[in-house]
Amino acid sequence: MLWQVHPGTGKHLPTFIGLYRKATALRPDVVDNWYMLASFLVEARQNEEAVTVLTHAIARLPTHPRLYLMLGQIYYMTRRVDLARDVLERVPAIPEDDREMTISHLTLLMDTGLADRAQAATDILALDPVNSYALMLLGAVTCRNGSSQKMIPFCEAALKTEPGHTRARYELAVALARLGRSQEARQMIDLNQFVRVIDLQPPECYVNAETLENALVSEITRNNTLEADPVDRATRGGFQTSASLPRPGDDAIGKVLDLIRLHVDGFDTSLPENLNDPFVTRRPKHAKLRAWAVVYPGGGWQKPHIHDTGWLSGVYYVTAPKASGQNPRGGLLVLGKFETGQPGTDPPPWGVRDIRPLPGRLVLFPSYIPHSTIPTNSRDQRICLAFDVIRSPT
After folding, report:
1. For residue 5, what pLDDT is reported?
2. CA 233 – CA 264 distance, rounded (Å)
3. Top-tier CATH class for 2-188
4. What pLDDT sits at residue 311?
5. What would the pLDDT profile of 350-365 be if each residue is shown by its tens digit?
6. pTM value?
7. Which fold has domain 196-391?
8. DSSP bridge partners of 314
């Protein structure tokens, strides 16, 4: 596998922001100048300034829907849904041939409750059959109202276009399971065939595992992008960084990610060439590693979810509290639970698999496998690096 490793843009953000400030001053009539300035401000986590910039831009260029959509997205991501709705109700007409902007508009309308989810998701899939978010939302709706049969043609259309499509494979498996077609569902999701559990030795530059652990804890806990329960993420009762690791100065994180790439390469070469499974036959030749960190207090957990943009996903445990007799399953990584399951839902036909987290343990699994965690109920934190292996065009 050929890895695309690009230096992070974080250290260059002040320069980019400065350049686009000058651009908006020199050419305030160019909508892209305002849009790019706001984009870099959001990346720098300066959301309030981005709001100010976009509000000023809309006042000067009131006919450009792109500015309204970005402002609405910022309000939504910062949990100000009422303000997002207000902006969306003022969006100017979007050109009929602008598919990307139309999809963004429909997505925000769904997220803020201004549009019927099933209808909006169907409209999006008519424009983009491989839209993962629309497939996810439509899958949730059909599970709730008992119409899983409706998901099958949408999933099949996505898989015809992209045979290795992560979300479509998962949603098709769920629909088959809900319809009682258990054997077919089990063929879609296997909790053993492509799952690897590897206990890593620390890189040679670290004296021992404890030295590496201390360095990783220091780099992760000082990361200023740690955010409590980010919107549209699976973390509950915990903290998660933005997906831009390593950051400047993250020496230990960088070395562990290099080690993870080596083991992903080993996983890739171990896949049987004669197996007619899209996970194998459509695996990426060029890839990049998208990584972030999660810090869980004792009550923190991950709700069941999959990683739509990944081919292979995984987690490396930095710290993990020991299991107690009173809570023997505390802290477990659980593979297989329905993403949209409710308490009392029968186990899926492919079952569930528990994996015990240990410091230095690496777990690899296909991105279409739903995964979740159980709270540790411990005074000690559980800290991990999570990642996706994402297809890269070159």
Report:
1. 75
2. 24
3. mainly alpha
4. 98
5. 999 999 999 999 999 9
6. 0.92
7. Jelly Rolls (2.60.120)
8. 364, 387
